[in-house]
Amino acid sequence: MTQVVIISGGGTGIGRAAAEHFAQQGDQVVILGRRGALLEQAAQAIGGRFPQAPPVIALQADLAAPDQVERVRDVLRARFDAIDVIVNAAGRHVLRQVPAETYADGLAGVARRWTDNFRLNTLSAVLLTEALADQLRAPGGRILFLSSIAAYRGSGQGCYGAAKAALHPYSQDLAKALGPRGITVNVIAPGYVQDTGFFGSALSPAQRDSKAAEAMTLRAGTPQDIAATIGWLASPGAAHVTAQIVQVNGGAERGR
C-alpha cells in the first residue's frame, strides 16, 4: 500500500535521505522546508531516481510560523484522505550557520541565539506535528523526530542540545496521548553524520576523523544510516515500539 509521508527538511541531508528511502518503496513523499528552489531540485532529482513512485511534492514554508504551517495543513488536507508518516527532520545549529558576532551583543544575543535554536529545532517540529496529528492514519500512523547526540552530551553552547532535548519529553507525552489510536511516536538521535551541511566547513579533516573515531564502529554515520532507522520505525514491524529515543551513533554515546 502506498503511504503518504511528510518530511520536514526533506531537501538536504538526513531529510533527503529519508525522502529517497520512502520514494524507493513507492510511497507518496511530501518534502517541506524554507528554501523553495532547493526543495524543487530535490523533488525532481528524487523523482528521476525513483520513477516508480508518485512525483515528490515540494511545499515551501517556515515551519516555525503558525500561519505557514496552517497553510501546509490545509494543502495536505485537500490532497490526502490521511497521512501515514510524519518525519520531523528540519533543524540546524544556528552557530554553525552564521558568524559568531551575530549573537555578540550581550544578553540580547544570548536570548536571540536560544530563541533561534528553539524555533528551528523544537517549535518547527511541534507546530507541524500538532497541525497534522488529526490527519494521521489510525491505527498505523507514525510520528518521528530527529534529535541529536548533543541532547545527551551538550553542544558546546547549550542552546542547540537543549532545543533537541526538548523533543524527548514532548514525544513521550505525545506517544501516551496517541497510543490508544494505534499511532506511535519515536525519536532518532544521530551522532556524527558525514555528508550533510550541518557543520558546513567548520571541521578540519583531523576534526572529522576524531569525531568518526568516537564510534565503536570507527566510522562516521551516513544519512542513509539514519534513513534506514527512520524507515524501520515507520514500518509495520515497529508497531509496538513507541515513546523511545533510538540512538544511531555507532556506540559513541552509550544507550540510556
TrEMBL record:
Signal sequence extent: none
Domain annotation Ketoreductase: ranges: 3-196
One Pfam family here: adh_short_C2
Taxonomic superkingdom: Bacteria
Stored SUPFAM superfamilies: NAD(P)-binding Rossmann-fold domains (SSF51735)
Record key words, sorted: Oxidoreductase
Family: Belongs to the short-chain dehydrogenases/reductases (SDR) family.
Name the UniProt record assigns to this protein: Oxidoreductase
Organism per entry: Cupriavidus malaysiensis
